[in-house]
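WARN retry 2 of 3 for item q-0093 after timeout on previous attempt; input resubmitted unchanged.
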Amino acid sequence: PIGYNGLSFIADCLRNNRTLKSLSLHGIPITEFGISNLAATLKLNNCSLSELDLDMTEFNDGLVKYLVEMLKYNTQLATLRLSHNRISKGAVKMLTAVLIRHNRSLKSLILNNNSLIKDSSAKYFVHLMKKSVALLELDVKDCSLSEKQRIILYQ
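OK item q-0093 returned
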């Protein structure tokens, strides 16, 4: 994992940064301390980051709460990648709620290859696709959704 202060250092560097548009932490395990600092920085809307790649970072439902709080206020982030993690129904419910009620900037949510996303999450995705004013892409390929739920979702 990134050392105890590693992601905090990155978060500090992002404050008032107007040049970096994309941050990939792909494959680097993230701690709660680290994501809480990064999310707090992104919540301030004082950097130009539009894409955040958290694929394969050992992200789980407990860490998603920091992203949810950030997404309530962030107006810059357009793409959030959370593929190949341990995201399940609880996180799906939180993410879809914040994207419907608060967020107006996220265009792409990538959650593929999260095997803990099962059919019980499909109703939240359907609601999100109907109600979100911003989201254009939702990728849940290779999650544990049945064929029936995938058909309903991609209609």
